[in-house]
Amino acid sequence: MVAGIIMVSLVPVAVLGALAAKNSQEKCDTALERDYPDHRLPPSQRYRVDDCNSYAVPLYVLGIGGAVLAAVGVPMIIYGAKSVPNGPPTATLRILPWANPEAGGLRLRLEL
Predict the structure, then answer these.
(1) Whole-angstrom Cα distance, residue 75 to residue 91?
(2) Burial degree of 66 (CB within 10 A; 0-12, 13-18, 19+)
(3) Residue 7 near residue 79 (C-beta atoms within 8 A)
(4) Is 109 helix (H, G, I), strand (E, B) or coil?
(5) DSSP secondary structure string, 76-107?
(6) Which of 30, 61, 68, 100 could serve as a FRET partner for 15 with CA atoms 20 to 30 Å apart?
(7) Which sequence spans correspond to the domains of the chain?
(8) CB distance 11 to 73 below 8 Å
């Protein structure tokens, strides 16, 4: 259950990282379109296309990783919650009568 909680708590971090990568990629693409509206880059500026495309890897890794964390973490929470007791174990005190042909009485039994 604890592992599931940790996994699900990391999902927003992964989603925010994926959104940041997507925004950075769009900003880079917009800057390229603004600087070169005819989509013809001089040979000295070809590295800028690779820079813009480098945001794809973190975008997919964080996006898919966040989805996997959510898909695995939620069932772990549900499965782990079933085995957690509702409260502390209760101690019971029993009074047990006993009798035989020679004697009789009560026995006090404490179960922790």
Answers:
(1) 33
(2) buried
(3) no
(4) strand
(5) HHHHHHHTS-SSSPPPEEEEEEEE-SS-EEEE
(6) 30
(7) 2-82
(8) yes
The most distant pair of C-alpha atoms in the chain lies apart, rounded to whole Å, by: 111
What pTM was estimated for this model as a whole?
0.64
Mean pLDDT score, 12-38: 91
- Measured CA to CA, the distance from residue 39 to residue 9 in angstroms comes to 42
Amino acid at 42: P
DSSP string computed for 30-81: HHHHHH-TTS---GGGTHHHHHHHTTHHHHHHHHHHHHHHHHHHHHHHHHHH
Question: By three-state DSSP, how is residue 112 classified?
Answer: coil
Residue range 54-107, pLDDT digits in tens: 888 999 999 999 999 999 999 998 888 776 567 766 777 777 777 777 777 777
∠36-19-78 over CA atoms, to 5°? 160
